[in-house]
Amino acid sequence: MLADSHGRVATDLRVSLTDRCNLRCTYCMPPEGLDWLPKDEVLTDDEVNRLIAIGVTALGITEVRFTGGEPLLRRGLPGIVAAATALTPRPRTALTTNGIGLARVAPALAEAGLDRVNVSLDTLRPDVFARLARRRRLDDVLAGMAAAAAAGLTPVKVNAVLMRGVNDDEAPELLRYCLDHGYELRFIEQMPLDAQHGWRRDDMVTADEILDRLSAVYSLEAADAATRGSAPAELFRVDGGPATVGVIGSVTRPFCGACDRVRLTADGQIRNCLFAREESDLRPLLRGGATDAEIADRWRAAVAAKLPGHGIDDPAFLQPARPMSAIGG
């Protein structure tokens, strides 16, 4: 198992397939983008497949989520998904995407065995989308969500980040859209993971504020906390249910004590926490002839050193050097 010294066991593997993205969201990266990883530093498809296989067959991983950057930019994505779903025991699989291009590849991903998708959608207003993402691609995102649902990649979950003074008045509107289309909405507090290191706690729309905005329009009832487990979202039944809305209060309502996630970056680094400032490099082992057992041992050691929490409230907190796009969600 991938156990740490605080009694947690990692069973959920987040695999970043690229640090590249075709949007330039203001809370993630600057307008000009970033310096992308050189091609020779990015894991090959075979290397990704080998590490996922080690995680599933030797280390107890039961869920694999493919992330980026934007994972749909990875040409070998369907083959990587197919390799993961062919493993025994078969892990649950998911994809976190901005949705651009999803309409085209959703059928191939479903055929490869992908179980479901999470799509980022912060606004339903074209002008606000262009302001936030610096691209006019809202119609492509909405089409991608519809295609995913049609291909059976369900439930389609929607991730939304509210920005103060930009889209923070849209919470009820976003929820209505998701309810009408059968999508499951999750609001996420903005986290200090932007490339510019410009995050300020006072600018963040908190979980309490999100719930206040929703409660002005809908009746919300907390779902049974006992069923939450390690899920990051607190769920609330909307107008008596069965539909729910989730709030992920990573900053103000941290859930570090139940965390079961471990991350693999596109260049082969194991990160035991989203906010970790240290990584464990598996790429030299992969390319240096190490056995699966030796790689598994290095992986176990990386997870064993996991801190009890992300420490955002600690006055000495330092934002990770890598932004979210280079870490993977």
Q: Can you characterise this structure?
A:
The relative contact order is 0.16. The model has no long low-confidence stretch (mean pLDDT 93). The chain is of the alpha/beta class. α1 (45-58) packs across α9 (292-304) and α3 (102-112) packs parallel to α5. The protein is globular, with a radius of gyration of 19 Å. 29% of the residues lie in helices and 17% in strands. It has one domain (2-327): Aldolase class I (TIM Barrel), CATH 3.20.20. The strands form 2 sheets. The protein has a 12-stranded mixed beta sheet with strand order 9-10-11-8-7-6-5-4-3-12-13-14.
**Which regions are unreliable across 5 or more consecutive residues at pLDDT < 50?**
none
Taking all Cα atoms into account, the compactness measure Rg is 19 Å
| Proportion in helices | 25-40%
The H-level CATH homologous superfamily, spelled out, is Aldolase class I
CATH topology: TIM Barrel
The computed structural class is: alpha/beta
Architecture per CATH nomenclature, i.e. the level-2 architecture: Alpha-Beta Barrel
- Determine the mean pLDDT: 93
Largest sheet: 12 strands, mixed
N-to-C terminal Cα separation, in Å? 22 Å
What overall geometry do the principal axes of the alpha carbons give? globular
Order of adjacent strands in the largest pleated sheet: 9-10-11-8-7-6-5-4-3-12-13-14
Kindly give the count of domains: 1
Order of helices and strands: EEEHEHEHEHHEHEHEEEEEEHHH
Strand content: 15-25%
Number of strands: 14
Query: How many helix segments?
Result: 10
Q: Based on the structure, what is the oligomeric state of the protein chains?
A: single chain
